[in-house]
Amino acid sequence: MAARNGAIKLVAGNSNPRLAEAIAAYLTTPLTRAVVRRFADMEIFVEILDNVRGTDVFVVQSTSFPANDHLMELLIIIDALRRASARRITAVVPYFGYARQDRKPGPRTPISAKLVANLITHAGADRVMTVDLHAGQIQGFFDIPTDNLYASPVMVRDIRERFDLASVMVVSPDVGGVVRARGLAKRINAPLAIIDKRRERAGESDVMNVIGDVAGRTCVLVDDIVDSGGTLVNAADALIEQGATDVYAYISHGVLSGGAVARITASRLKELVITDSIQSSEAVRVARNVRVLSIASLIAEAIGRTASEESVSSLFD
Ligand code: R5P
Fold first, then answer.
1. In terms of domains, do 163 and 141 share one?
2. What domain range includes position 265?
3. Is residue 173 very low, low, confident or very high in pLDDT (cuts 50, 70, 90)?
């Protein structure tokens, strides 16, 4: 983990200080002292208090809610580090916001995920590290090395400890998530079911077709994002109507906007398991059926390997 100027440096933005501290603890590297604060008009001001000249710096910042503020913080921290002569700057963005805007859904619409990639690059990042990108091809929106880590090893460990695997059925809550769900199903040697959500006629509610026999099974829904919670709640209802014994969900990023936690708590979902890629709100912390798995050690390990030029992909073999 040696850089020319001693050890690696870790800098935390304000989006997820708990995760940044856990990563720092794993790497036994203190967070670099920095001030990230606001002027009266809410402009962001950053000052790096320690010398970073010639160092290998990792900036930990999810672009989660409020996405624009956290993104701007990340850009300004990178700018400050570049002007302070850091040798290499890696933007560690455990949750990459704007990822769902990865294509033009209609004429005269933006591809905001590409714009965000451009902003991070032009601010001065040399590398990017992120977790479970909404779409793998977003990696290609960056022309700098980008590592897309997977939370699945952490989830698989938890699933193995918790369930009788013989009764588990992994379920993709929509057709778009099949590749991700199939990957996890393969790791635990479980069968896969898919929910095909269709709106037969405009104005009518969605029909949820469950493809696969889930009767008597413990269903584990797998997805990258839970936002409003609507997808999961509807999927849980459809699975239970088809005879599933219990429904759990393992989701990488707990965006959980608005009343999502209340919706999940009131649902037929036995438990929602998310990672700490986004810092938990108080609602999440007290929710009866939401649990958080930490990916701090996974990210820390990837940072350590990046710094010492070792393989990162072998973390997922
Ligand atoms: C969509 O493509 C994503 O993978 C998630 O399924 C979606 O963002 C979940 O959103 P919500 O919780 O609002 O239904």
1. no
2. 152-293
3. very high
